[in-house]
Here is the input.
Amino acid sequence: STESYHRTDLMTITRHVLNEQSKHPEARGDFTILINHIVLGCKYVCSAVNKAGLAKLIGLTGNSNVQGEEQKKLDVLSNEVFLKALVSSGRTCILVSEENEEPILVEPSKRGRYIVVFDPLDGSSNIDCGVSIGTIFGIYTVKDQENPTLEDVLRPGETMVAAGYCMYGSSCMLVLSTGSGVNGFTLDPSLGEFILTHPNIKIPKAGKIYSVNEGNASNWDEPTAKYVENCKFPRDGSSPKSLRYIGSMVADIHRTLLYGGIFMYPADKKSPNGKLRLLYEVFPMSYLMEQAGGQAFTGKQRALDLIPKKIHERSPIFIGSHDDVEEIKELCGAF
Ligand code: AHG
Ligand code: MN
Ligand code: MN
Ligand code: MN
Here is the structure.
């Protein structure tokens, strides 16, 4: 009800993270400061996305990134915004971005103990047509702050201390987990604050939606083809599932988290490791999904158990409702 919204005890993301911090007596507020700087980046990108069409921020830069993708103006702008926000927080020591070939080592005078891996703008192909896009991030703590190394980054997703995404859609929502559940915050533009609107998100145990790019069907392996076939023509005579595919991982995952179902970017003959990048797309989303009671599976193993060898390495992913992922695990012969 609207009057409840005008409660005076607005739970902003900062207050929420401070509450979480109070559970860690040794915490010195560094994490809260880091999150505040990530939030600042999200607010900036949200405003840039909302006026992209007006501010000539759509379209290509004419350059390509390390992924071999044509960089959009918003890819570059978002990347610069997050790099600057993260460095200026004084709480990071290594940054890994989809848009930077090498990891960024923060200058010693501004170093902190956190490592942030991020996709500054996810779903770039949807920018120019106004479809939801987002930002994805994951946070590790460095082993030795005095000499951060690449080994600090090439670790299982399981060792992340936090992960989240911001979706720039009909509303701007930030979804975050710091290891004890998942919470969703909606930006109130009149306050410039992210307000807790979705406390303790849990994904439905089973869903009625499958999400995959059917255009790749000719390249799928047997288990994927069989799973999708069963979504469309259920062997047990139940009603077929609905297909929903937006093409922005953040939007497809956000819908899956709230409504249930499964999102897949499988391996295929063309790309044996699928398309999505392990460190800053698959790991953060897998961390969130498990915190919300779901599963994340690569076709061979639990996604969070993978150890990246390279910072831009890709991995197939089947992620979503517990029971839905269980089905694909059985088809892949993994128990
Ligand atoms: P990004 O825009 O950060 O490069 O990521 C795009 C990804 C992801 O957002 C989405 O799930 C996937 O690309 C869609 O790929 P297809 O267009 O091949 O389906
Ligand atoms: Mn990209
Ligand atoms: Mn992406
Ligand atoms: Mn991106």
